[in-house]
Amino acid sequence: MIDFLRGQIAHIETEYVVLDVQGVGYRVFCPNPYVFAxxxxxxxxxxIYIHHHVREDAILLFGFPTREEQKLFRKLIDVSGIGPKVAxxxxxxxxxxxxxxxxxxxxxxxxxxxxxxxxxxxxxxILDLKDKLEGMGGFSLFDEAPTEDLTLHEAHPxxxxxxxxLKALGYTEAELDRAWQRLKDQVKADEAVDSVMKKALKILxxx
Length: 207
Prior knowledge:
By secondary structure, the chain is of the alpha+beta class. It has helices spanning 37-42, 67-76, 84-93, 96-104, 108-111, 119-129, 159-168, 173-183, 193-206; strands spanning 4-12, 16-21, 24-29, 46-55, 58-64. It is built from nine helices and five strands, in the order βββαββαααααααα. Strand 4 and strand 5 form a beta hairpin. It is globular and about 45 Å long. It holds the Pfam family RuvA_N.
């Protein structure tokens, strides 16, 4: 089974990247493909941690920038009612640390804001995973539980946190200001930070 792939980004779509590994293009589905946009611009060799998913009618690759996200994804798909697509949605809607903290602190309100998660599935996540996530992410028994409006900002939903993440990828203040002018009418009041960042990266990648 494939555990990781190392190569250059050849193509980016809204749901996946194509990673060129020594002349072979692997389609890898990701929570937020546009986090690899900065690497794509510089044609850097990157490592994507893989979950190799085999079913009767398809062989699929799901990829993550960190080993921690890969581990959390595998824990999530062990929960009854959560398949790979829903698990990707969870990781695109909330950071791993926030998801792990919400599970530990039984924060149903936060979990049900994640894509594809209803109250019953959130309860199953807590029941199945609460004791299996010790030591993962930055969780501490003294962490504050994420609030239901975790991704909101009094002026612009999700943008301040998304902006910091984009700056870490190497984008300038001027580039981010221009991107926000195009983006601000596209985001919803309850939109998750990762979703805001994904839309911003699509704009930045397109130029």
